[in-house]
Amino acid sequence: MIVMRRKSETIQASLQHLAFLPQLKGDKFATVIAIHGRGADESDLVPVVSALELPDLLLITPRAPFAFPFGGFVWYNIAEESVPDPETFQISLGLLRKFIEEVREGYPVEPKRMLLLGFSQGTVMAYAAGLPDHSRLRGIAALSGYVPHRSAVPLQLRDLAGFPVFISHGHADPIIPVHLGREAAQLLMKAGADVNYHEYPMGHEVTGEVIADLSEWTRMRLASLAV
Fold it and tell me: Full-prediction pTM beyond 0.90?
């Protein structure tokens, strides 16, 4: 596991967040923005990304804007299965899109080497923010989530030729059923994306098998344009 160096000061941005600089010296770095799920916070996915063993990585982890009654934070309320509440979803999506631009401008990001990684609600947000902006990203890692194409926010699933997407989902996921992960893969492949889809014998979680497959995929995506 890579131990990343937490930046003592973060930039003023639309979302509260943590920033972790790589141990290696440099002017610009491959970057992952890791977006947590419901009831978690900005520290939740740090161990997951650290376990990917990418020593030259800049990690940024934003916090969702809405407090969850049972602890942690959420990106949106849930209207029904696979349908985010329009009001909270639109607010968070606007903030996240602005935040991504602030990260590009305020941190030592190598522009051609940025990935979005999400888990659960974070995956939904990564799709919604990243797919319209895919030409400026090296890919999306979508863990245990779904494409919010039924939401009130327009999401054009087209012209994704060759865009890399890693999808992981558990056969026994009790929170976001596996059929939504399969649907996401089908929608994205139909739009031309280069989808790397995996199902695992797990629930709503990130296991060692996921880490191993995700590490290989992430390393290839970020190393292919190394500077």
Answer: yes
User: In sequence order, which residues have a C-beta less than 8 Å from that of residue 171 and are 6 or more positions away?
Assistant: 178, 199, 200, 201, 202
Query: CA 109, CA 169: separation in Å to the nearest integer?
Result: 29
Each residue's pLDDT tens digit, 62-104:
999 999 999 999 999 997 888 999 999 999 999 999 999 999 9
**Structural domains for the chain:** 5-223 (3.40.50.1820)
Q: Give the other-Cβ count within 10 Å of 190's Cβ.
A: 12
Contact call for residues 194 and 217 (beta carbons, < 8 A) = no
Q: Which two tokens stand for residue 178?
A: 């596996």
The number of helices, as runs of H, and strands, as runs of E, in the chain is 5, 12
User: Is the distance from CB of 206 to CB of 119 less than 8 angstroms?
Assistant: yes
- How many whole angstroms separate alpha carbon 25 and alpha carbon 22? 7
pLDDT digits (tens, 9 = 90+) for 19-35: 999 887 778 999 999 99
Alpha helices, DSSP H only, in the chain?
A: 46-50, 86-106, 121-130, 178-190, 208-223
Residue type, 168: S
